[in-house]
Amino acid sequence: MKTLLQRGFNGCGVQDITSAAGVPKGSFYNHFESKEALGAEVIERYWQSSSSRLAILRDASVSPLERLRRCFTSQVEALVEWNYERGCLLGNFAAEMSDHSTVLRARVAAAFAEWTRELEQVIQQAQAAGEIPQGSPPAALATFLINAWEGAVLRARVDKSRVALDAYLSLAFDKVLA
Amino acid sequence: MKTLLQRGFNGCGVQDITSAAGVPKGSFYNHFESKEALGAEVIERYWQSSSSRLAILRDASVSPLERLRRCFTSQVEALVEWNYERGCLLGNFAAEMSDHSTVLRARVAAAFAEWTRELEQVIQQAQAAGEIPQGSPPAALATFLINAWEGAVLRARVDKSRVALDAYLSLAFDKVLA
């Protein structure tokens, strides 16, 4: 996962992956039919490993709007800590593989869809609690915010700067959800 | 440019590029020091070829807000027409190469910066004309909208659907710029 996250799907070979894992290259095909099959598995694991993000969104002891804020703020902090050198595996695979692998595309789409549903629920709760206005459909807000987040992460990596992330936090919460 | 846009920087080799151009592979290095040097040139050309986008943004015969709307609506139409199969070269290179080539990263950053400045000017004009409120700084709005756009394009490619693009148009204009 680390090798794929750092180098991209086409930026590394099976050899790089098995070397990083400290196993012989030949053993790879005992476990995976192809690099694509590993990629699909990695997307699944990456999404499961985002459980801290989901834990924040589901923490009923915190107000819905504050949960939304913490979800993105914690990710900003992580990106800054990594010097903007690790992006989002979903966004990376989306850019690289959407038009080249139906298997990987479907896995990325499923992960984005699940994240969107999670966010949508919290937005619904924030609307019900009167923390944000009722006007916009929660599904559209969730989709927009997740996509805008992915774009902000990409830009922060290009600029090696938090400007894009700060613009995201400020406008997502002061305009989109206000 | 077409080959790099379709396959990504790491998804094609020099051979693929020279084949697509109908020239012998050996001739490549008469023109470019490396594939990276070609990539940098392609980013520059790609950005220059976005002149229709800039022409829309600079068309003083149209109100600033309407120019912003046309700029993104025309890109949505193009993506739908291509069946979401071509993304944005800047976004693709950002995802793939930000951490692996300072040359490519710098070129992508420069193109995004120029696009942001262009958008910022039109947002300033829209604010001055009273078409959008003065509250948010034009530079932050421009950065946010461009990044959110890049994320929406990525998501449309993953979903092979215009849902992300419609959410973008609706929330960018009804919330972020309203």
From TrEMBL, chains A, B:
Lineage, opening ranks: Bacteria, Pseudomonadati, Myxococcota, Myxococcia, Myxococcales
InterPro entries: Homeodomain-like_sf, HTH_TetR, Tet_transcr_reg_TetR-rel_C_sf, TetR_C
Protein name: TetR family transcriptional regulator C-terminal domain-containing protein
Protein origin, superkingdom: Bacteria
Stored PROSITE patterns: HTH_TETR_2
Record-annotated HTH tetR-type domain positions: 1-50
Keywords: DNA-binding, Transcription, Transcription regulation
DNA-binding region: 13-32
Organism listed in the record: Pyxidicoccus parkwayensis
